[in-house]
Amino acid sequence: MTTTPAATDLTHLDAAELGRLLGAGEVSAVDVTRAHLDRIAADDGLLHAYLHVDGETALATAAAVDAARAAGDELGPLAGVPVALKDVVVTEGVPTTSGSRILEGWRPPYDATVAARLKAAGTVLLGKTNMDEFAMGSSTENSAYGVTRNPWDPERIPGGSSGGSSAAVAGHLAPWALGTDTGGSIRQPAALTGLVGHKPTYGSVSRYGLIAFSSSLDQAGPMARTVLDAAVLHEAIGGHDPRDSTSIPGQHPLLAEAARLGAGGDLTGVRIGVVRELGGEGHAEGYEPGVLARVAEALAVLEGLGAEVREVSCPSFDLALAAYYLIAPSEASSNLSRFDGVRFGLRVGDDGSRDLDEVMALTREQGFGAEVKRRIILGTYALSSGYYEAYYGQAQKVRTLIGRDFASAFGSGDGDGVDVLVSPTTPTVAFPLGARVDDPIAMYAADLCTLPASLAGTPAISVPCGLSDGLPVGFQIMAPTLADDRCYRVAAALEAAQDAARGHRLLDELAARRTTGGPA
Amino acid sequence: MGFHHSMSNLSREDVAHLARLARLAVTDEELDLFAGQLDVVLGAVARVGTAAVADVPPTTHAVPLTNVLRPDELTPSLPREAVLAGAPASEDDRFRVPRILGESA
């Protein structure tokens, strides 16, 4: 370690606490930024959480915040707090690849809305984080730029597709980060690294400037070390955006307030439904006993806080995986047609001897990795004449059934349903690097529990609920559309109760391992 | 379309045909690999066919919004040079593309 003890301390503070200390003038943005850059310099050689770090620009941004504060300017609560962005988020002038060779070296001419909002809030961009190419994957092994390692065990995956963000935040290389979630890509990596990760209600966070994978499913959201931090980051990026035609207008729920309410520990009257089809009786095949045990313990904790827990059946969830792996590849095959070697990124074979079609095909052959090609081909098949109804059309109808299962579980709001649904976030803890790369179906199974909320567009959070075999387990809380506040409230209650019972935070156990013998 | 086999049975030729449709110049090795893998994936996703959905409408979007319009006001576009800066090739303030017509045209 090259970092001084004082600098290390700054990387261990929550983002909300950093914001408070910065606002009170107790620390400078430059010191906070430098501490994280030092940590990146020391540890990212191993973890490879980042694809791009520009320390000079980050320090200049931080210095500008410090100067503005010294001049007495009115600054927001996040001014000077560093942040990392998944490389699917377009950033003006900052290299953005979406984990793909086809965009190597591209510097976008504009900012995504989420990036612009964080910039306007005065946050300091540390860098862009690694990811599965075009967010297609569950392990970050599909990145064209190499794998990212899990800080809990460098021989294991950090989850995916937002695995660079999860490794960066769990490894204290950033206080928090943005991920995107299409089928679980925020929640699953958060679960596997001991973080809080929330997929917002579809339409509640702008998709403008996210490189599209599956447009009816993609959502950006927060990844953080505490529920409160996740809520604060979510509020900073959320709300209506006229540049996204699927953005929901009007009032959005108050999230940090919900997290604070939950941390108070009283869940009296909150009705929790445990989804039988996600690891329950008769549906436990493929679920690790250690994962199910931690989830059962979390349920007991929530019951102890006054919540009413019952089992709920959502039979269509059994078909979520099949529907998702038709809908997402179909939309992807259409979205990725924009990578044609004409307007941005790579062009291959343009030597005067080939026509446009040939150059396009060569460019896409060399620019895309295997998983992206598989999904484009699968999506092209599912959308082709003669097969459309049997595959894509049928998947869209199953999507309706999944939405109905949620609606029936949540009821009409008159006490006939539950307030939230819960499940494990993932069937297993983080698996070893390479374990599933040659078996797409095994890889896809990592998303089993997160897919239903993706297809229904409902909000869902993953919050740590303990360790199994020394690795983090995630507890998923799903809520009705635009009731993201319920996710934060219940998650904060669980977090506060388990931290109190344990006497420390789960992530402190990772820090303890580091100080006794390096990462893991 | 001329796929060679019944549903959820994807041949090497089918994959080559689909790759052509998607403008992907796949290699022989990829064809071998993908045909086997995609056949397994198709078998798994074909499970959607088991759902009883005769009277169920499709969902295209989880949060349907219709007629989303912004105010009809002029707003600046990106500067042309900023957009062209990211292009693989440009000429006369435009994207330059490989030829799109045959030599005889």
UniProtKB/TrEMBL annotation, chain A:
It catalyses: L-glutamyl-tRNA(Gln) + L-glutamine + ATP + H2O = L-glutaminyl-tRNA(Gln) + L-glutamate + ADP + phosphate + H(+). One of its GO terms (molecular function) is glutaminyl-tRNA synthase (glutamine-hydrolyzing) activity. It holds the Pfam family Amidase. Residues 31-487 form the Amidase domain. Its EC number is 6.3.5.7. InterPro entries: Amidase, Amidase_CS, Amidase_dom, AS_sf, GatA. GO terms for cellular component: glutamyl-tRNA(Gln) amidotransferase complex. Keywords: ATP-binding, Ligase, Nucleotide-binding, Protein biosynthesis, Transferase. The keyword Protein biosynthesis applies. HAMAP family: GatA (MF_00120). NCBIfam families: gatA. Belongs to the amidase family. GatA subfamily. Heterotrimer of A, B and C subunits. This is Glutamyl-tRNA(Gln) amidotransferase subunit A. It comes from Goekera deserti.
